[in-house]
Request: fold
Amino acid sequence: MVGLIQKILIDMIKDITNEETLNEIKKLANIPLDRKFQINIVYSDEEWQKLFKAMLSVLKITDEQADETYAKYFLKDSLERFPTWFQMSKNSYEFLLIQPTIHNCFATGVADQKHRDAINDKFKVEQFPEKIITHYKSSNNHCGLYMKLAQEVINHYKDNAIIEEKKCMKSGGDECEIHVQWSGLAA
Amino acid sequence: MNQLNEYNNFRQEIERIADQLCLAVKGTFDFSVEATTSDQIIQKLCMLMNFTIDAARRSLSEMNIQNSKLTELDKLKSDFMANVSHELRTPLTLILGPLEGLISDKDSIPLAHQDNLFRIHRNAYRLYGLVNDLLDFAKLEAGKYILSEEVIDLNRHIKDIVDDAQGLAGERKLSLTFTPFPDLPLMMLDRKIIDKITFNLLSNALKFTPAGGHINVQLLRDCDCVDIIVTDTGIGIPTEQISKLFERFYQVNSSSTRTHEGTGIGLAMINQFTKLMDGKIVVASEEGKGSKFKICIPFKAVPENKKNQPEEKYKEKISSFKVSLSKMEMKSESKYTDIEKLNIKGDLPLILLADDNPDVRSYIVSLIQDSYEIIEVENGKLALEAIYKFSPQVILSDVMMPEMNGFELTAKIKSDPKVKNIPIILITAKAGKEAVVDSFQVGADDYLSKPFSAEELKARIGAALRNRQDYLKIEELNIQLNKTINELSNSKSYLESSNKELEEEIELRKILEEKNSKLNSELVIAARHAGMADIAASVLHNIGNALNSVTTSTTFIGQRILTSKTSNLIEISKLLDQHESDMAAFITNDPQGQRIPKYITKLAEISKIDKEYLTAEINNVQKGITHIKEIINKQNSLSKVLGVNNAIIVPNLIEDALILNKTIYSNINISIKRDFNPIKEVVNDRVKLLQILVNLIKNGIESILEKNPEHKEIILSIREKNNTHFDIQLSDNGVGIEKENLEKIFSFRFTTKKEGHGFGLHSSAISIQDMGGNLSVTSDGLGKGATFSITLPYQPSKKEDRKNE
Ligand code: HEM
Reply:
């Protein structure tokens, strides 16, 4: 997992709790306390999964609560960090269409082809008028996070859309299939 | 201090990134930028730089894949070109050899075949030259052309080539000179290449230099090089196109508008040949002033061991080269003339033929000269001039021509109402759908794809000519109608002064006039677009009848208005004006005044009669116009839409048909007898039946006029035949029909009349069959009148019904 994700999660934990709780979580996840995550470097997926789980258990929150909080925090951060990508799109439909390309952008700096493909292959978007279908495949199982992030993007642009997961890896599917249907998109 | 450190670290990090980016100059983009730093901005920068590098890498690899595919295709194409050219040379040689044998003894060839044989010979050679060029070009492209050098006296060699071209230059009224370089030593050169280069440059100069111009070929030597310089005072080359001149297949004008024939490989080939000899080309040109091509070839001295060898004989090669130069000569025996001097007087239909290739022109002329008078021109511009001067009946034009191409010519003709009705047939090198689309898109009336057969050419010209003649007939009718309308318009102001009621009639007439002129244009369009000549002819036939009756009625109206007594009203009103002050005394005491009240009463009566008469005539006009409209609608939809069935009151329909024929019989004393018996209700195609009745009545009247008996009579009858069918009969006491013609009378194009087309009865018979009935004729022979019988069902058959659903 590209370090940006861990970095923002750690910032968030520190923000909503304190240094002590953060260290507790890091310890539980076996992450050295002085570890600094670089936003353009890939770190192990297992380590990330442990970090996320540790957060759930220490903060005593559900997956859904964690996704929601993180999505909010992540979007706020990204808006400041990468404002151009948000300005480039005139609505949430356009933004979600380029979301896989944004992700692939992080993959290009990764020297190892296998790791690069792993990032590139996570998202595929099918485009329809006022609708997209995202095919998501990853051992990190973050379809919940996808839906919360998508909702945040929709809210940011003040659009109207319904998000539905029609297929999920957690219930035995070969991939997750998330449908986003807009209504009344401004041209 | 800490801040300074941070700043220095930051700078170092940026420098490291910059150093990594230096790899980009390799142009392969197979690297990525790495930075181990805690600075998030630098991390972001690295990530985005990597994205950009990756994008460049991906497009590069896509481009490489595309390139290798293209190179492969290019190679395939070159191989293919070489193979095809090679294969073509064998049959061409087998054509040319025997042909040369044949024409070497001109006197032994029958006169009728001489032109054709020489034309074949010229063009076969032309093809041979083109094939050879293609073959050389393919070899050059594939890098397979091997230089074969020999000892050459270049001064003498170039002089020979220039001498060969003198004849052609003279014919084109160009002066051609050669300036040798004195004491140029013998040198080693590939003779074939020198021939090709000089020939191509010279033939371009000959092609692009207008009459009166000058061409000079010069040889120069500076220390290491020999220059062949060809200078002309021709049309020149636009500056922006000079750099593209040597691209393969490039022509200064794009293919559809280009003005000269050629494959577009000539200069590309010169370029390749020059490179092969390690030489270079320099071009200088100014539009409208001329061009200068300089080929610099490295001087290669003759090695010692070859110095004593005599110059190789090349007589044979030169002679074939001579022929290839003569490919442009294509002298034509056909009579292309200066338009100003042309004088057309023949009785045959006039065709304008525009083609820049004299051989094609003379070939076409040889095919059609027996049936047509032909004006020949060599480009679109001259064609346009000739069209205005001679108004040809049909235009036959090539697409690719100098000055103005066939498409431009078509556009010009079709946008000028004065000439747009002259049919134009485009001759195109394209075939199939492409030819159809291109030709019709520009507005041509028809097209011919090369190669075309003599029969096809004749058939297309024939069809176009028929369309033109039909159009002219409609025009004539139009003029007649407009004349009548004008007469009516002139009397309009007269009528206005009479009384208000008459004014209303005029309003009505105005509307009718508008309808008329609208219908006129509809009818012209309908006839033009009807396409098939017989449909167009049938439209004309029917409309001719209806227009005649409209014309008669409008003439009557005009006459009536002119002679109307109501004009006297003006006189009366003038009198009354004069006596405005003593009106009562004037009317009671003055003898003139005493007559006025009586006179006004009388005028009112006359005016009433006038009005009734005019109303009746205007109704006739209205009927005529409605009929024209019905015919146009009918004919427009002839091929697609089937008739509409409605209830018909047969006696009324016969009366309508009589009215529509009124022109012909109103001035002749023909007695029309009606024997109308009651029949059941009839449902069928009313318009179709009306048309048929109009045709039959017209036929009857015409045949009576032809015999011109003392007592002229037509008897029309309606009677029941049986439960399901009824008969309409029309008997005349006209010329009658010979027994042997009775059967043929309904066949297409058969007519006994002097001026008849022979489609009236044919289409009537077909129409009746369509309506489920049958048309027959009886006659006791010539001079004994004829009876036409229509048998029709009361109700259309099931099939007819279904058509209408
Ligand atoms: C500017 C906005 C965004 C940025 C910079 C961004 C960046 C990233 C990065 C760097 C990763 C780690 C990728 C990896 O290592 O595989 C990631 C993962 C993810 N992102 Fe985004 N993202 C953005 C917007 C979004 C949006 C709008 C969504 C959802 C609609 C989304 C959904 C996800 C999910 C579900 C993952 C986890 C993928 C996995 O590992 O399974 N992201 N994002």
Chain B has a mean pLDDT of 77.
